[in-house]
Amino acid sequence: MNNILSKDKVVLNAKANDKSEAIRMAGNLLVQAGHVSEDYVDKMLEREEIASTYMGGGLAIPHGTKEAKGMVISTGLSIVRFPEGVDFGGDEPAFIVIGIAAAGGDHMEILTNVAMIFTDDESIEKVMNASSEEGILAIFEGGMGA
């Protein structure tokens, strides 16, 4: 689990005009941290065109298409919080956007772990109310069993 999560990939108070901008923000954090090549961000946007990555409950989990596998250098997550929400085409806006880059066979495991953290309304509230990057990381590290 080394450095899948780190403070430099958490943004507490982001603003985006639309979901493409929100996905780009989450993707660029993964690029800057060296988890993926820049092309991966385009694949995240492509993936969103195929099917929305909005999961309900204020959460979206954008990730690349299957073809993007080769652009992943290492597994990583970025967490971007949008206090005002971003329209992902769901019944309600996404307030938390989690960018996922999964190397090898990590993909399903990571998605499952993230989804499980958010099946708990309390966790969503904790993430929304966390006052620091560390606070958000602690919720995820607890939920990811790291």
State the gist of this model.
The protein has 146 residues and is α/β, with parallel strands linked by helices.
Give the helix/strand layout.
Elements (H helix, E strand, L loop, with lengths): L9 E2 L7 H14 L6 H12 L3 E3 L2 E2 L15 E11 L7 E8 L4 H12 L3 H9 L3 H11 L3
Question: What does the model show?
Answer:
This protein has 146 residues and is of the alpha/beta class. The chain has five helices and five strands. It has a five-stranded mixed beta sheet. A hairpin with a 2-residue loop joins strand 2 (54-56) and strand 3 (59-60). Helix 1 runs antiparallel to helix 2 (39-50). The radius of gyration is 14 Å and the shape is globular. The N and C termini lie close together (7 Å).
Strand content: 15-25%
Subunit organisation of the chains:
single chain
Largest sheet: 5 strands, mixed
Average pLDDT, rounded to a whole number, is 90
**Structure annotation, total helices:** 5
H/E series: EHHEEEEHHH
Give the distance, in angstroms, between the N- and C-terminal Cα atoms.
7 Å
- The tally of strands reads 5
- Helix share bin: 25-40%
- Rounded radius of gyration (Å): 14 Å
Structure class: alpha/beta
Q: Output the strand order for the largest sheet.
A: 1-4-5-3-2
- Low-pLDDT ranges: none
Shape: globular
